[in-house]
Amino acid sequence: MPDPKAALAGHPFFSGIDPSIGETLAECAHEVSFPAGRFLAREGEPASGFLLLECGTVALELHRPGRMPIVLETLHEGELVGTSWVIPPYRWSCDVRALDPIRAIAVDARCLRGKSEFDPKLGYELLKRFLPLFVQRLEAVRLQLLDVYGETPT
Amino acid sequence: MRSPDPFVPSLFRVDRVWRESADTVTLGLLPIQGEIPAFRSGQFFMLYAFGIGEIPVSVSGLWGQGPLLHTVRAVGPVSQALCRLRPGDTLGVRGPYGSPWPLPQAEGGDLLLIAGGLGLAPLRSALLPALAERERYGRIALLYGARSPADLLFGEERGDWSSRGDLQVEVTVDHASPAWRGSVGVVPARISHTRFAPERAHAFVCGPEVMMRYSAAALLGAGVPPARIFLSLERNMKCAFAVCGRCQFGPTFVCRDGPVFSYDRIARLLSIREL
User: Fold this and answer.
1) What whole-number distance in Å separates Cα of residue B94 and Cα of residue B238?
2) Which terminus in chain A has less CB density within 10 A, N or C?
């Protein structure tokens, strides 16, 4: 089993992280793998953590009664899956399905929140890394909502 | 034979029609008389559907290789009429006009082509010569976004591009069902997943203006200098040679000084709401 600390430090999301913070994070992390087709999370379920994708692609999906689910976004190697663990009531806002065999680092949210309460440096580091992610994803959603490809370039 | 009056189009015949998607076709055009005028990748022609009107359409092919290629989406009366053309039909063509993609300037470094929707057509005219002279460039990447899988253009050819070992192709759509096996998300978000050296890269971007602004911001964030980011702008071009003023864009005319502009030249203008 790979060392979670080394795996965390090597993941783009935690690139350049202070080694002491990386060590604390690693205490909440472990390696996981899933086969293609497996649901990693379901809408409404408790969001017990997040995944740092090392290999494979997942789809974030919304199910609709009597119709095919709609794919909101796909996330790929090097990306982070799961932000619902940050904000109460800590529940997944969509389904997460593995499109390929997945290898990832799973980080336990309860463990991380607990450590952050007593370690402001850790909490601030997480804030600095998650806030840009929230902004990037918000901007991407805005762009999707605009349906810009309805226009015609020259 | 070209008319001495710059407003008078030359007569062309539709040689071939390729259906790209439900509302988009590529027209292969040949002149009734004379040769296809020399043009460069990124330039545009005015296509005239008789009795209906004229619109600017960028070339989607190469000069000297078969017919003049234009990819048209049926969105207005003129483009709808153009999309109804069949082999043997005639139309008016004048041009070429405007500035080309600066391919020679990009030689020696990495090249990113970032397309949104129909914007892949003008960028195809840059990609093909770059692939034909592959040794002149470092890494080449094509990032292409569309509304849905059904709207993706040049399907067969994209398959060939994806199978090349010397071209990174990233295709993403805004919306999809689970049957789609590719990426879902917006094009600018794919820039951070692209392999290139920003300090020696050029980026050519074509698509809806909002998508181009977001892409330019992502490129700047990745470290690409603004003078090496090129956007192909769309404005209401009518005369195509800077007389009518319909496409005035600050101190420039998009038809004459564009449509391809470097980002450092137009970044300030793009922020002016009235333009």
Assistant:
1) 12
2) N
3-state helix, strand, coil in chain B (%, to 5): 30, 30, 40
Residues 6+ apart with CB under 8 A from A77: A53, A54, A55, A56, A57
Cβ(B108)–Cβ(B83) below 8 Å: no
* pLDDT tens-digit series, residues A80-109: 999 999 989 999 999 999 999 999 999 999
- Percentage of chain B beyond pLDDT 90 is 77
B216 near B227, Cβ under 8 Å?
A: no
Residue of A143, A146, A147 to mutate, interface with B, max B Cβ within 10 Å: A143
Side-chain half-sphere exposure of B72, counting CA atoms within 13 A: 29
**CATH classification for the domain delimited by B103-270, as one of 1.25.40.10, 3.40.50.80, 3.40.50.720, 3.40.710.10:** 3.40.50.80
Residue of A nearest to B213 (CA): A143
Residue B26 corresponds to which amino acid? Answer: T
Residue of B nearest to A150 (CA): B147
How many residues are present in chain A? Answer: 154
Q: Would you state the pLDDT for residue A2?
A: 66
Q: What is the DSSP letter of B36?
A: P
Question: So what's the pLDDT on residue B2?
Answer: 61
Collect all residues of chain A within an 8 Å Cβ-Cβ radius of residue B180.
71
3-state secondary structure of B96: strand
- Name the phi and psi angles at B79, rounded to 5: -65, -30
Q: What is the pLDDT of residues B227-263, one digit of tens each?
A: 999 999 988 888 888 888 888 888 999 989 989 999 9
Q: What is the largest CA-CA distance in chain A?
A: 57
Pairs of CB atoms within 8 A across A/B: 97
Q: How confident is the model at residue A154 (pLDDT cuts 50, 70, 90)?
A: very low
Residues A131-151: tens digit of each pLDDT? 999 999 999 999 888 888 875
B10-97: CATH topology: Elongation Factor Tu (Ef-tu); domain 3 (2.40.30)
pLDDT digits (tens, 9 = 90+) for B109-167: 999 999 999 999 999 999 999 999 999 999 999 999 999 999 999 988 999 999 999 99
Name the DSSP class of B192.
G
Asked whether the beta carbons of residue B188 and residue A74 sit closer than 8 angstroms, the reply is: no
Picking from A73, A146, A148, the nearest residue to B185 by CB comes out as A73
Q: CA nearest A147 in B: which residue?
A: B147
